[in-house]
Structure formats: structure tokens, C-alpha cells
Amino acid sequence: xxxxxxxxxxxxxxxxxxxxxxxxxxxxxxxxxxxxxxxxxxxxxxxxxxxxxxxxxxxxxxxxxxxxxxxxxxxxxxxxxxxxxxxxxxxxxxxxxxxxxxxxxxxxxxxxxxxxxxxxxxxxxxxxxxxxxxxxxxxxxxxxxxxxxxxxxxxxxxxxxxxxxxxxxxxxxxxxxxxxxxxxxxxxxxxxxxxxxxxxxxxxxxxxxxxxxxxxxxxxxxxxxxxxxxxxxxxxxxxxxxxxxxxxxxxxxxxxxxxxxxxxxxxxxxxxxxxxxxxxxxxxxxxxxxxxxxxxxxxxxxxxxxxxxxxxxxxxxxxxxxxxxxxxxxxxxxxxxxxxxxxxxxxxxxxxxxxxxxxxxxxxxxxxxxxxxxxxxxxxxxxxxxxxxxxxxxxxxxxxxxxxxxxxxxxxxxxxxxxxxxxxxxxxxxxxxxxxxxxxxxxxxxxxxxxxxxxxxxxxxxxxxxxxxxxxxxxxxxxxxxx
Length: 483
Ligand code: ASP
Description:
By secondary structure, the protein is an alpha+beta fold. Helices cover 25% and strands 25% of the residues. The chain contains twelve helices and 20 strands. It has helices spanning 52-60, 119-124, 126-129, 133-155, 196-204, 242-260, 276-283, 334-339, 370-379, 384-397, 412-419, 450-455; strands at residues 2-3, 15-28, 31-38, 41-47, 66-75, 90-101, 159-160, 178-180, 188-190, 209-217, 229-238, 265-266, 273-275, 299-300, 302-306, 311-313, 319-321, 350-355, 358-365, 405-411. The protein has an eight-stranded mixed β-sheet, with helices on both faces. The protein has a five-stranded mixed barrel with strand order 2-3-4-6-5. Strands 8-9 form a two-stranded antiparallel ribbon. The two termini are 44 Å apart. Bound molecules: aspartic acid. Aspartic acid binds next to strand 19 and strand 20. Residues 194, 196, 216, 324, 362-364, 407-409, 479 line the site of aspartic acid (ASP).
């Protein structure tokens, strides 16, 4: 049976088998020390010439070779104890060695944080980059955070439901990734910008408490801390008001920090709440950083921002929604919305959650009647037929007893990067895209065969032909924001 390196401390005096990668090697006189790394940590292996065959093979070992060894676990002499290692009090005197797999000389060191290594190199050899302790910890904590949220919501009665990845292109605010249909020539699916419409329709279906760890795909330029795809803890509930969703999420986050990041301090509980106008006036930002001490890496300043204007003017002077066309107006503005009056004053039942100056989530109470939805789309300039064509399914569903409902989505990548004190969300994503949108390891995007193109009825234009007019610059709506 194979033991993990970390487990060997409980087996002093015994003969055990361990496996892993050669992390480093040092020759002290005639004695060869190898630090063996597995997912649990490091174990020091000792090879001496008293075992000539094993010793000879061991001398050939190089960084990142994969080996299996057997030997006795012994307590290290007192002066050799390494207090920095969990296994620092023991070592293995190896008497059997098998090389399982050799490695080329790695293009960069796996020890250390790796921030100094060129990003292209880290991305190309991501499987090596992920071997470093920092990256491993980021992935482990990501797993724990997502699991905590899932378990928490499960206890609260939510059920996780998967919604389709192939869906309909709708003007939700961002640019869609589109997928050509083979069976329906000239038609396209879109990858979801979020499960927004499905999760609302699930409320009409009587689910009442939906959740999903959902991937959201948006074809926007990868400025700053953004990726084409990001992960949300997405949820939706029936028969609720703003307060219900906000207190659920606030308690979830407080418990998450207490359980998984006990060394971190939440600056203020309950989380302070700011109305949008107030946030803009006082901080000139709708995601203010309220930390009293910005040098403290363990300080978490959460806050809620509420009372967002429903609409704003775009560059062309037309009305557009600020967050989400599916939001409800606050009750006192319902009449104005239905009558399409005082549009600039209408406030949405929207709430954003902010952490240390980053928007880590947002949601709203939704409009649950066809009239509200129609009004919103009319205000932003849709003709009746267009509304029907784009959102007919929502209007139809809302005619069959749609409960009042609302929800929120938390941005897992952002939350993790803040909790792990990482500047960039790429550090907490196993296989992110590079700044120009490529997967440098898989070499995606890539060309496809002419047969594949034919099957989906697509012809690639030659460079001259494809001088299409530059796409209109769009200001990403909140719905399209990477969280
Ligand atoms: N679907 C929204 C978003 O992705 C979140 C929500 O309102 O629930 O931003």
C-alpha cells in the first residue's frame, strides 16, 4: 500500500512505500538526499552507498522524475530536524527505488511563488505551474469554498439544477459566444452569459430554491481581471424580498470566513449598507473599498450597495438598463415603470455585494409579470415584435402563475482571489486564458477542418472579404460584468 508523505510521521520505525516527484537533490559527501514531493507535502529520502544498486540509480535521478520508493522511516538526528516541514522530524532510508517516469528539465522552477516567471511560460506549462505549493493551495481552497457554499445552501433547502450550455442568443448586455447548429443550417446557439432566464423559469416551475455552480461565458475583451468564462454561485428563490436574499448571503459569507479563513477579520458585522447615491457621493464609486487599514492582508470589508438607478443613458443617448433587464423596480416606482414616466428616477430592487473594493456579487428581486418585463424592454427601445421574438418564452412563462422571486450570483473567482490574497483571478483558476484570450497549453482557439466547417454550414471569408465594419463598442452592463 502506498502512504502519503505526510502520513509517514505516524509510522516511525516501520517500512513503508511512498511515491511522488523529485523536488530537489543534494549530495552531502557520499550521502544523497532527495526531497520527494507528493500532494500531501515533502519527505526527505536518504540514499547511501551501503545499498549499491539503489544508490547508483538514485544518482541518476533529476528534478521532477516520478519515483516509487520503499524503506524504513526513521527519526532524524536532532541537528537535522527541519521545523519548516511537517515531516521535518523524519526521513526514509531507501532500500528499494523504481523510476516510474522521467522528466525533461522543467522550463522553470516549481519551488517558490512563481510570480516572477513570464506568464506565457506559466500558461504553456500549466501542469508544471500547478505543481507549486501556492497554486495547489489555491485550488484546494477553491474546492473548499465552493463545497462550503454548496453544503450551506443545501442545508437551507436549495437544490442544484444544471441549466443548458447551448441556449438562445439574447441581448442581455454582453456579447454572446455563438455555436453554429449542424441540424439547423444558418442557425446558432449561444453559450449562456448567465443562467438568469432559466433560473427565473425554474421559479415559475415551482422549484422555489434553486442554486448552481454555474459557468458564465461572455465574449468581452479581457481587460483587467476578466476571463471569457467565470464561475458563479448562482441562486434564485421564490416568495422573497431583498432582505431575505441579502441576509442569506451575508450569513453564508460570515460563516464561510469563520470556518475556512479563521485568521481573517471581517471589519464590520452586520455588513454596512450604502445606497447607490450615497456611495457615489461619498466614495465616487459603486464598489467602495471600506477597509480602515488597506495594508492588512487579513482584513475583509464587506458592504452592500443598494438602490441603483434602473436605467441610464448610453453613448447614443438611448436608455439602457444599468444591471439587469429582469429586475423589478422598487415598489414605489412600479407605477412610473409601467407608465414609462420619470425614467431617470426609477430605482431597481437591485443589491450588489462588495468586498475590499471589488464587486463580488449582485442580484435583484425580479419583475414577475409580463407587463413589467415589456415596459423595461420598451423603455430601452425594443419594438413589441422584437420583445416577443427575443423574450417571448419569459413572457409566456409569466402568464402561468409566476411567483414573486429574486436571487443573486456570487463571483467565485473574485471571492477566491481576495481570500487567497491574489491580485489576479488567473491565480485561482486551474486553466485560465491568457490576456489575449488564448489557451496557450491546448493552443486554442485553433482552426478546424474544412469538413467540420461544411457540416455546420460555415464558410471562412478570405481576409479581404472579412473587412467587416468594426463592431460597435458596447459598454458592458452589470449583467455582463465579470464577478
Ligand atoms: N445573472 C446576474 C449576473 O450574472 C446575477 C443575478 O442577478 O442573479 O450578474
